[in-house]
From TrEMBL:
Stored SMART domains: CLECT, CUB
Domain CUB, chain residue ranges per copy: 322-427
Name of this protein: CUB domain-containing protein
Species: Pristionchus entomophagus
UniProt cross-references to InterPro entries, sorted A to Z: C-type_lectin-like (IPR001304), C-type_lectin-like/link_sf (IPR016186), C-type_lectin_CS (IPR018378), CTDL_fold (IPR016187), CUB_dom (IPR000859), Snaclec (IPR050976), Sperma_CUB_dom_sf (IPR035914)
Keywords: Disulfide bond, Signal
Amino acid sequence: MRRLLLLLLIEIVHGSCPAGFELVRNGQCRGLHSTITRLYNEPEREAVSRCKEINGKPVIIHDDVDQMYWRSVLNGSNYDTRDALETNNEVHWQSWSNGNWDNGTDTTYNGLLLGLVCTEDSDYRDIVWQWSDGSPIDYTPPGFEDSIGNYLCGDSYSWYLRPNGFWEDNFKRPPIDVYCTTQLEQPVNDGCEYDPEDGVCYRIGASANSWQDAQAICRNMGADLVSIHSKEENSFVRRMAVAYGAVNGVFLGGTISGKGKEFGWIDGSAWDYDNFYPGFPIDGLGECLTMDTLSAAGQWVNVNCSSSFPVACAKKDTVPTCTSGPWTEGQIIYSPGYPYDASVSCNYVLTVEAGKRLEVHVKLLEANTCCDRLILTDNYIGGNTIANLTGEISDLTFYSESNIMRVTWQPNGGVNVRGMMITFNAFETIVLPTLHP
Protein backbone atom coordinates (compact mmCIF):
# COMPACT_ATOMS: atom_id res chain seq x y z
CA MET A 1 0.00 0.00 0.00
CA ARG A 2 1.22 3.49 -0.79
CA ARG A 3 2.04 5.52 2.27
CA LEU A 4 -0.47 8.37 2.42
CA LEU A 5 -1.15 11.13 4.86
CA LEU A 6 -4.63 12.36 5.74
CA LEU A 7 -4.83 15.73 7.43
CA LEU A 8 -7.72 17.84 8.62
CA LEU A 9 -8.69 20.34 5.92
CA ILE A 10 -8.13 23.82 7.26
CA GLU A 11 -9.74 26.72 5.45
CA ILE A 12 -7.13 28.91 3.81
CA VAL A 13 -7.25 32.47 5.03
CA HIS A 14 -6.50 34.83 2.20
CA GLY A 15 -6.89 38.56 2.66
CA SER A 16 -8.08 40.86 -0.09
CA CYS A 17 -7.07 44.45 -0.75
CA PRO A 18 -8.49 47.10 1.62
CA ALA A 19 -11.51 48.93 0.25
CA GLY A 20 -10.50 51.43 -2.41
CA PHE A 21 -6.99 49.96 -2.83
CA GLU A 22 -5.62 48.68 -6.13
CA LEU A 23 -3.81 45.35 -6.60
CA VAL A 24 -0.70 46.62 -8.39
CA ARG A 25 2.31 44.27 -8.49
CA ASN A 26 3.81 41.34 -6.60
CA GLY A 27 0.55 40.93 -4.70
CA GLN A 28 0.80 44.46 -3.28
CA CYS A 29 -2.31 46.57 -2.69
CA ARG A 30 -1.85 50.34 -2.79
CA GLY A 31 -4.17 53.20 -2.03
CA LEU A 32 -5.16 56.22 0.05
CA HIS A 33 -5.70 55.23 3.67
CA SER A 34 -6.33 58.48 5.51
CA THR A 35 -5.40 62.17 5.75
CA ILE A 36 -3.29 63.87 8.41
CA THR A 37 -5.13 66.99 9.53
CA ARG A 38 -3.02 67.97 12.57
CA LEU A 39 0.45 69.47 12.49
CA TYR A 40 3.18 66.92 13.33
CA ASN A 41 6.93 67.50 13.54
CA GLU A 42 7.48 64.16 11.79
CA PRO A 43 4.40 63.38 9.68
CA GLU A 44 6.20 60.39 8.17
CA ARG A 45 6.08 58.63 11.55
CA GLU A 46 2.38 59.37 11.81
CA ALA A 47 2.03 57.83 8.35
CA VAL A 48 3.91 54.73 9.53
CA SER A 49 1.54 54.43 12.49
CA ARG A 50 -1.56 54.82 10.36
CA CYS A 51 -0.44 52.31 7.76
CA LYS A 52 0.21 49.79 10.53
CA GLU A 53 -3.53 49.96 11.31
CA ILE A 54 -4.09 47.94 8.15
CA ASN A 55 -0.83 45.95 8.38
CA GLY A 56 0.67 48.16 5.73
CA LYS A 57 3.61 50.44 5.03
CA PRO A 58 3.82 54.02 3.78
CA VAL A 59 5.12 54.87 0.31
CA ILE A 60 8.45 53.09 -0.26
CA ILE A 61 10.19 53.19 -3.64
CA HIS A 62 12.81 50.68 -4.77
CA ASP A 63 12.77 50.90 -8.56
CA ASP A 64 11.49 52.76 -11.60
CA VAL A 65 8.23 50.83 -11.57
CA ASP A 66 7.43 51.98 -8.03
CA GLN A 67 8.48 55.52 -8.92
CA MET A 68 6.28 55.67 -12.01
CA TYR A 69 3.31 54.21 -10.18
CA TRP A 70 3.38 56.66 -7.27
CA ARG A 71 4.06 59.56 -9.58
CA SER A 72 0.98 58.62 -11.62
CA VAL A 73 -1.06 58.46 -8.42
CA LEU A 74 0.11 61.95 -7.50
CA ASN A 75 -0.56 63.40 -10.91
CA GLY A 76 -3.90 61.65 -11.23
CA SER A 77 -5.25 62.55 -7.82
CA ASN A 78 -7.16 65.63 -6.73
CA TYR A 79 -4.04 67.69 -6.21
CA ASP A 80 -3.50 71.01 -7.97
CA THR A 81 -1.51 70.72 -11.20
CA ARG A 82 1.91 72.23 -10.58
CA ASP A 83 5.35 72.28 -12.18
CA ALA A 84 8.61 73.01 -10.43
CA LEU A 85 10.85 75.68 -11.89
CA GLU A 86 14.31 75.79 -10.40
CA THR A 87 15.95 79.22 -10.71
CA ASN A 88 19.07 80.41 -8.86
CA ASN A 89 18.91 77.39 -6.56
CA GLU A 90 15.45 78.44 -5.36
CA VAL A 91 12.33 76.45 -6.06
CA HIS A 92 9.29 78.46 -7.07
CA TRP A 93 5.92 77.12 -8.10
CA GLN A 94 3.41 77.76 -10.81
CA SER A 95 -0.16 76.88 -9.92
CA TRP A 96 -2.87 76.38 -12.53
CA SER A 97 -5.90 78.47 -11.61
CA ASN A 98 -8.84 79.52 -13.78
CA GLY A 99 -6.93 78.74 -16.97
CA ASN A 100 -3.82 80.74 -15.99
CA TRP A 101 -0.47 80.10 -14.35
CA ASP A 102 -0.10 81.98 -11.05
CA ASN A 103 3.57 82.52 -10.20
CA GLY A 104 4.82 82.71 -6.68
CA THR A 105 6.22 80.76 -3.77
CA ASP A 106 3.92 77.88 -2.82
CA THR A 107 3.24 77.63 0.90
CA THR A 108 0.97 74.58 0.76
CA TYR A 109 3.47 72.38 -1.11
CA ASN A 110 2.20 69.61 -3.33
CA GLY A 111 3.86 66.24 -2.88
CA LEU A 112 3.31 62.62 -1.90
CA LEU A 113 4.68 61.80 1.55
CA LEU A 114 7.41 59.13 1.44
CA GLY A 115 8.15 56.60 4.16
CA LEU A 116 11.67 57.87 4.87
CA VAL A 117 12.33 58.27 8.61
CA CYS A 118 15.22 59.48 10.73
CA THR A 119 16.87 56.65 12.62
CA GLU A 120 20.22 55.62 14.06
CA ASP A 121 22.61 53.92 11.63
CA SER A 122 24.01 50.45 12.23
CA ASP A 123 26.89 51.86 14.31
CA TYR A 124 24.50 53.88 16.51
CA ARG A 125 26.61 56.97 15.87
CA ASP A 126 24.70 58.99 13.31
CA ILE A 127 21.08 59.85 12.66
CA VAL A 128 20.30 59.07 9.03
CA TRP A 129 17.36 58.70 6.66
CA GLN A 130 16.08 55.15 6.16
CA TRP A 131 12.97 53.53 4.79
CA SER A 132 10.51 52.89 7.59
CA ASP A 133 10.54 49.12 7.04
CA GLY A 134 14.35 48.98 7.36
CA SER A 135 14.89 48.16 3.69
CA PRO A 136 17.87 49.81 1.99
CA ILE A 137 17.66 53.03 0.01
CA ASP A 138 18.67 51.29 -3.21
CA TYR A 139 16.96 53.67 -5.62
CA THR A 140 16.72 57.39 -6.22
CA PRO A 141 15.00 59.06 -9.17
CA PRO A 142 16.87 60.04 -12.33
CA GLY A 143 18.70 63.33 -11.92
CA PHE A 144 18.98 62.92 -8.15
CA GLU A 145 22.72 63.37 -7.78
CA ASP A 146 23.17 63.54 -4.01
CA SER A 147 22.88 60.63 -1.66
CA ILE A 148 19.93 60.92 0.70
CA GLY A 149 22.42 60.17 3.46
CA ASN A 150 23.93 63.61 2.83
CA TYR A 151 20.71 65.32 3.91
CA LEU A 152 20.39 66.25 7.56
CA CYS A 153 17.68 64.50 9.53
CA GLY A 154 15.63 66.89 11.57
CA ASP A 155 12.21 67.83 12.84
CA SER A 156 9.66 69.46 10.55
CA TYR A 157 11.25 68.28 7.31
CA SER A 158 10.05 65.19 5.50
CA TRP A 159 10.59 63.65 2.09
CA TYR A 160 8.01 64.10 -0.66
CA LEU A 161 7.64 62.84 -4.20
CA ARG A 162 6.89 65.75 -6.52
CA PRO A 163 4.63 65.62 -9.60
CA ASN A 164 7.72 65.99 -11.82
CA GLY A 165 9.32 62.92 -10.20
CA PHE A 166 11.82 64.74 -7.95
CA TRP A 167 12.25 63.80 -4.30
CA GLU A 168 12.59 66.73 -1.91
CA ASP A 169 12.89 67.19 1.83
CA ASN A 170 10.57 69.98 2.75
CA PHE A 171 7.91 71.18 5.14
CA LYS A 172 4.25 70.67 4.29
CA ARG A 173 1.30 71.83 6.32
CA PRO A 174 -1.76 69.60 6.72
CA PRO A 175 -3.74 68.18 5.12
CA ILE A 176 -1.30 65.44 4.14
CA ASP A 177 -2.64 62.33 2.44
CA VAL A 178 -1.31 59.01 3.75
CA TYR A 179 -0.92 56.34 1.08
CA CYS A 180 -0.15 52.80 2.15
CA THR A 181 0.91 49.47 0.68
CA THR A 182 -0.38 46.16 2.03
CA GLN A 183 0.60 42.65 1.00
CA LEU A 184 -1.91 39.94 0.14
CA GLU A 185 -1.64 36.93 2.41
CA GLN A 186 -0.62 34.03 0.23
CA PRO A 187 -2.16 30.59 0.59
CA VAL A 188 0.45 28.26 1.98
CA ASN A 189 0.72 24.57 2.56
CA ASP A 190 -0.69 24.39 6.08
CA GLY A 191 1.40 21.52 7.38
CA CYS A 192 0.76 18.97 4.65
CA GLU A 193 3.56 16.44 4.49
CA TYR A 194 4.13 14.75 1.16
CA ASP A 195 4.74 11.07 0.77
CA PRO A 196 8.19 10.75 -0.86
CA GLU A 197 6.99 7.86 -3.05
CA ASP A 198 4.05 9.53 -4.76
CA GLY A 199 3.86 13.09 -3.41
CA VAL A 200 0.18 12.72 -2.41
CA CYS A 201 -1.49 14.22 0.64
CA TYR A 202 -5.13 13.61 1.65
CA ARG A 203 -7.34 15.93 3.65
CA ILE A 204 -10.89 15.76 4.99
CA GLY A 205 -13.03 18.86 5.43
CA ALA A 206 -16.43 19.98 6.63
CA SER A 207 -19.59 19.67 4.54
CA ALA A 208 -19.88 21.43 1.21
CA ASN A 209 -23.24 22.57 -0.16
CA SER A 210 -22.68 20.80 -3.48
CA TRP A 211 -20.13 18.73 -5.38
CA GLN A 212 -19.00 21.88 -7.23
CA ASP A 213 -18.50 23.68 -3.92
CA ALA A 214 -16.57 20.69 -2.64
CA GLN A 215 -14.22 20.84 -5.62
CA ALA A 216 -13.83 24.60 -5.10
CA ILE A 217 -12.83 23.97 -1.47
CA CYS A 218 -10.19 21.51 -2.63
CA ARG A 219 -8.93 23.83 -5.38
CA ASN A 220 -8.52 26.65 -2.88
CA MET A 221 -5.79 24.57 -1.29
CA GLY A 222 -4.29 23.49 -4.59
CA ALA A 223 -5.96 20.06 -4.51
CA ASP A 224 -8.81 18.16 -6.19
CA LEU A 225 -11.56 15.97 -4.85
CA VAL A 226 -9.95 12.62 -4.24
CA SER A 227 -9.57 9.93 -6.89
CA ILE A 228 -9.16 6.36 -5.66
CA HIS A 229 -7.19 3.72 -7.51
CA SER A 230 -6.98 0.67 -5.23
CA LYS A 231 -8.76 -1.21 -2.47
CA GLU A 232 -6.05 -0.19 -0.04
CA GLU A 233 -6.50 3.48 -0.79
CA ASN A 234 -10.26 3.18 -0.48
CA SER A 235 -9.99 1.54 2.93
CA PHE A 236 -7.44 4.08 4.11
CA VAL A 237 -9.55 7.08 3.05
CA ARG A 238 -12.67 5.61 4.62
CA ARG A 239 -11.01 4.86 7.98
CA MET A 240 -9.37 8.25 8.23
CA ALA A 241 -12.55 10.06 7.17
CA VAL A 242 -14.37 8.40 10.06
CA ALA A 243 -11.50 9.33 12.39
CA TYR A 244 -12.11 12.98 11.51
CA GLY A 245 -15.86 12.77 12.07
CA ALA A 246 -17.08 12.24 8.49
CA VAL A 247 -19.21 9.20 9.43
CA ASN A 248 -22.09 9.69 6.97
CA GLY A 249 -20.23 9.86 3.69
CA VAL A 250 -17.81 12.08 1.80
CA PHE A 251 -17.69 13.52 -1.70
CA LEU A 252 -15.22 11.83 -4.03
CA GLY A 253 -13.84 13.29 -7.27
CA GLY A 254 -15.94 11.13 -9.59
CA THR A 255 -18.58 12.57 -11.91
CA ILE A 256 -20.28 11.66 -15.17
CA SER A 257 -20.80 15.31 -16.12
CA GLY A 258 -19.26 15.84 -19.54
CA LYS A 259 -18.13 12.22 -19.79
CA GLY A 260 -21.18 10.61 -21.34
CA LYS A 261 -22.64 7.93 -19.07
CA GLU A 262 -19.26 6.81 -17.77
CA PHE A 263 -17.73 8.08 -14.57
CA GLY A 264 -14.38 9.81 -14.63
CA TRP A 265 -12.11 11.50 -12.09
CA ILE A 266 -12.01 15.29 -11.92
CA ASP A 267 -8.21 15.25 -11.64
CA GLY A 268 -7.96 13.51 -15.04
CA SER A 269 -6.43 10.29 -13.69
CA ALA A 270 -7.39 6.90 -15.08
CA TRP A 271 -10.59 5.19 -13.95
CA ASP A 272 -8.85 1.94 -13.01
CA TYR A 273 -10.76 0.97 -9.85
CA ASP A 274 -14.31 1.24 -8.48
CA ASN A 275 -16.18 0.12 -5.38
CA PHE A 276 -19.89 0.70 -6.10
CA TYR A 277 -22.68 -0.82 -4.07
CA PRO A 278 -24.38 -3.60 -6.06
CA GLY A 279 -26.76 -2.06 -8.56
CA PHE A 280 -25.01 1.32 -8.54
CA PRO A 281 -24.61 3.69 -10.24
CA ILE A 282 -28.34 4.14 -10.84
CA ASP A 283 -29.40 6.13 -13.88
CA GLY A 284 -31.16 9.35 -12.92
CA LEU A 285 -30.11 9.24 -9.28
CA GLY A 286 -27.27 11.70 -9.73
CA GLU A 287 -24.06 12.44 -11.58
CA CYS A 288 -21.66 12.84 -8.64
CA LEU A 289 -19.91 10.30 -6.47
CA THR A 290 -19.81 9.74 -2.72
CA MET A 291 -18.33 7.12 -0.44
CA ASP A 292 -20.51 5.57 2.29
CA THR A 293 -18.10 5.87 5.22
CA LEU A 294 -20.58 4.25 7.62
CA SER A 295 -20.06 0.87 5.94
CA ALA A 296 -16.77 -0.85 6.66
CA ALA A 297 -16.29 -1.51 2.95
CA GLY A 298 -16.51 2.19 2.06
CA GLN A 299 -18.71 1.49 -0.95
CA TRP A 300 -19.74 4.16 -3.45
CA VAL A 301 -23.07 5.55 -4.58
CA ASN A 302 -23.98 8.18 -7.12
CA VAL A 303 -25.92 11.17 -5.77
CA ASN A 304 -27.39 14.45 -6.91
CA CYS A 305 -24.55 16.95 -7.33
CA SER A 306 -26.42 19.50 -5.20
CA SER A 307 -26.28 17.19 -2.17
CA SER A 308 -24.29 18.18 0.91
CA PHE A 309 -21.38 16.04 2.16
CA PRO A 310 -17.97 16.53 3.75
CA VAL A 311 -15.10 16.72 1.26
CA ALA A 312 -12.14 14.43 0.71
CA CYS A 313 -9.29 16.20 -1.10
CA ALA A 314 -6.04 14.91 -2.56
CA LYS A 315 -3.06 17.13 -3.27
CA LYS A 316 -0.23 16.10 -5.54
CA ASP A 317 3.14 17.81 -5.66
CA THR A 318 3.13 18.58 -9.38
CA VAL A 319 4.38 21.36 -11.65
CA PRO A 320 1.52 23.62 -12.85
CA THR A 321 0.63 22.87 -16.47
CA CYS A 322 -1.98 24.16 -18.90
CA THR A 323 -4.50 21.50 -19.91
CA SER A 324 -6.66 21.61 -23.02
CA GLY A 325 -9.93 20.38 -21.54
CA PRO A 326 -12.52 19.59 -22.81
CA TRP A 327 -14.46 21.96 -20.59
CA THR A 328 -18.10 21.41 -19.74
CA GLU A 329 -20.92 23.71 -18.71
CA GLY A 330 -21.00 24.38 -14.97
CA GLN A 331 -17.47 23.08 -14.46
CA ILE A 332 -15.22 25.34 -12.40
CA ILE A 333 -12.07 26.15 -14.36
CA TYR A 334 -8.87 27.38 -12.73
CA SER A 335 -5.63 28.89 -13.94
CA PRO A 336 -2.74 26.39 -13.77
CA GLY A 337 -1.30 26.08 -10.26
CA TYR A 338 -4.23 27.84 -8.56
CA PRO A 339 -3.95 29.15 -5.86
CA TYR A 340 -0.22 28.73 -5.15
CA ASP A 341 1.35 29.51 -8.51
CA ALA A 342 -0.23 31.85 -11.09
CA SER A 343 2.79 32.11 -13.39
CA VAL A 344 1.70 29.68 -16.13
CA SER A 345 -0.33 31.02 -19.07
CA CYS A 346 -3.22 29.07 -20.57
CA ASN A 347 -5.96 29.25 -23.21
CA TYR A 348 -9.42 27.83 -22.64
CA VAL A 349 -11.77 27.35 -25.60
CA LEU A 350 -15.31 27.15 -24.23
CA THR A 351 -18.18 25.96 -26.41
CA VAL A 352 -21.92 25.41 -26.06
CA GLU A 353 -24.57 24.05 -28.40
CA ALA A 354 -24.80 25.74 -31.79
CA GLY A 355 -27.46 28.44 -31.89
CA LYS A 356 -26.91 29.38 -28.27
CA ARG A 357 -24.66 31.99 -26.73
CA LEU A 358 -22.21 31.57 -23.92
CA GLU A 359 -21.91 33.34 -20.57
CA VAL A 360 -18.74 33.23 -18.51
CA HIS A 361 -18.91 33.92 -14.81
CA VAL A 362 -15.66 35.16 -13.27
CA LYS A 363 -15.97 33.78 -9.76
CA LEU A 364 -12.58 35.17 -8.77
CA LEU A 365 -9.69 36.99 -10.41
CA GLU A 366 -6.55 38.00 -8.57
CA ALA A 367 -4.01 39.55 -10.94
CA ASN A 368 -1.37 42.25 -10.63
CA THR A 369 -2.53 45.27 -12.62
CA CYS A 370 1.03 45.94 -13.70
CA CYS A 371 1.50 42.62 -15.39
CA ASP A 372 -1.27 40.00 -15.49
CA ARG A 373 -4.38 39.82 -17.69
CA LEU A 374 -7.47 37.68 -18.19
CA ILE A 375 -8.74 38.23 -21.73
CA LEU A 376 -12.13 37.07 -23.03
CA THR A 377 -12.67 37.05 -26.80
CA ASP A 378 -15.58 35.99 -28.96
CA ASN A 379 -15.10 32.87 -31.08
CA TYR A 380 -11.89 30.86 -31.22
CA ILE A 381 -9.80 33.29 -33.27
CA GLY A 382 -10.31 36.71 -34.84
CA GLY A 383 -13.29 37.62 -32.66
CA ASN A 384 -13.97 40.82 -30.76
CA THR A 385 -12.48 41.33 -27.32
CA ILE A 386 -15.26 40.96 -24.77
CA ALA A 387 -13.20 41.92 -21.71
CA ASN A 388 -9.60 42.62 -20.74
CA LEU A 389 -9.45 42.13 -16.97
CA THR A 390 -6.91 42.58 -14.22
CA GLY A 391 -6.76 43.38 -10.50
CA GLU A 392 -9.23 41.92 -7.98
CA ILE A 393 -12.58 40.85 -9.42
CA SER A 394 -15.32 38.56 -8.16
CA ASP A 395 -18.76 37.55 -9.39
CA LEU A 396 -18.85 39.25 -12.79
CA THR A 397 -20.54 37.76 -15.84
CA PHE A 398 -19.67 38.31 -19.53
CA TYR A 399 -21.51 37.22 -22.68
CA SER A 400 -20.37 36.05 -26.10
CA GLU A 401 -21.93 36.82 -29.48
CA SER A 402 -21.50 33.23 -30.64
CA ASN A 403 -21.45 29.77 -29.12
CA ILE A 404 -17.66 29.92 -28.62
CA MET A 405 -15.55 32.02 -26.26
CA ARG A 406 -11.81 31.97 -25.83
CA VAL A 407 -10.54 32.71 -22.33
CA THR A 408 -6.84 33.50 -22.04
CA TRP A 409 -4.92 33.72 -18.79
CA GLN A 410 -1.83 35.86 -19.54
CA PRO A 411 0.38 36.35 -16.50
CA ASN A 412 3.61 38.28 -16.71
CA GLY A 413 5.05 36.72 -13.58
CA GLY A 414 1.82 36.15 -11.65
CA VAL A 415 3.75 37.03 -8.51
CA ASN A 416 1.99 36.55 -5.16
CA VAL A 417 -1.51 36.29 -6.64
CA ARG A 418 -3.86 33.32 -6.98
CA GLY A 419 -4.92 33.63 -10.61
CA MET A 420 -8.44 33.01 -11.86
CA MET A 421 -11.52 30.85 -11.24
CA ILE A 422 -14.35 30.83 -13.81
CA THR A 423 -17.35 28.82 -14.91
CA PHE A 424 -19.60 28.99 -17.96
CA ASN A 425 -23.06 28.08 -19.25
CA ALA A 426 -25.18 28.40 -22.35
CA PHE A 427 -28.13 30.75 -22.63
CA GLU A 428 -30.82 31.12 -25.23
CA THR A 429 -30.72 34.04 -27.65
CA ILE A 430 -34.14 35.64 -27.56
CA VAL A 431 -35.38 36.81 -30.94
CA LEU A 432 -38.11 39.41 -30.58
CA PRO A 433 -40.96 39.26 -33.09
CA THR A 434 -41.08 41.93 -35.75
CA LEU A 435 -43.94 44.34 -35.18
CA HIS A 436 -45.84 45.49 -38.28
CA PRO A 437 -47.92 48.66 -38.32
